Please model this.
Amino acid sequence: MARLIFETSYSPVPEVAIAATIALLAGVCGRAYRTHTGVDLALYMILVARSGTGKDAIHKGIPRVLKMAERPMADRFVRSVDFVSGQALQKELLREPGFLNLQGEFGKKLKQMSNPTNAPMQAFRTLMLNAYAREHLEGMFYSNAENNLLGVDWPALSFLGETTPGTFLQCLTADMMEDGFMSRFLVISYDGDKPYPNPNHGRAVQLPGDDLGHWGNLVDHALRYQWPVNTPAPLIATPNEDALERLTAFERECIANVNATEEDAERQVWNRAHLKVLKIASLLAVADHFLKPVIKIQHVAWARSLVARDIAMFEARKRAGDIGSGDDARERKLLQIMGDYLLHPPGAGHKVPEDLRVRLIIPRFYLQRRTASLPAFHNHRLGPTKALDEAMRSLADSGYVREVLRHELIERHSFHGKAYRLLRGE
Model:
């Protein structure tokens, strides 16, 4: 399925095809199956890639593959709907639980959800928190009893949204990280260039014969679980001995990492890592044999590698100061900018004298240009200039930088302005 989506994309990117395939499997199988620990197989996912790099393949590839199943009502597994509130999404889940909500430019909605004064988006965020791996979703009751909707067991909401790195990072507020909202998402990132157009993207293709029949039968089986009541008992994805041993070891690793830090955002990343691996491995097992899914060690290994890349991305962004809005995030970002400045000459547009850079001197105006639009600085209560001053003062007090004496700058470099010398990095 992933290969088909990749080979029929105008701008083929492996990460995009993989994200689309995993999300489609979660949308179809989320309610019909359980892990051996009793959790549904629904997933929340975000695809992060730069503009023009082929993210739109998820919106074309997923419906195309679902249509290949040729089963009535199969299109109900995917909703390309921009739900404007939590109430609207809850109504849809109560009527027809177990589907994939596919969203374009989800970063804009994430940004709205990070605003505590946006009541509809706060309700949307709350609903997503409540629907994740939940055994029961409460009903909705109105003064007109005819409009009432009863609660539903196992809502199994899956979600795939796409956005750009800049928009995504703006949304990673401390609040979004610490309450466990973002830790529910599997983030798949592509930071490469825009690929050349695929000359075969428009050709009509099908899954190979055996795979096509297998896919159709899987969708047919999952359709039996698409109603709020009177659904069959779900099938269990059971790990074999080797897979169970690997899953248990990873769960212990996750617990150790949770216990190793007091920082809530870091704890949240590891808190659900094992659950993501278990769900993805279960989906792979279902795709292999949907009537008797057995999780094998290769399923666990592949799922773990996917989640490991998600965790590595978060940790790298955190070290670079791209996540968070406090003093610590601003200082980490400044150290990253200064380190990059010393390793790579800034563009001619910055007009930084080269003799300053080779002597480890960073002009303040360069730092101001690089930080003014960053959320951690731009959103500071006193503005980006004050945020920069406070962060540089703190770095100086901690021995990371030293302000260069003005007369030294004038006499040796004919430079008028404030500048700093980087003494050490992290």
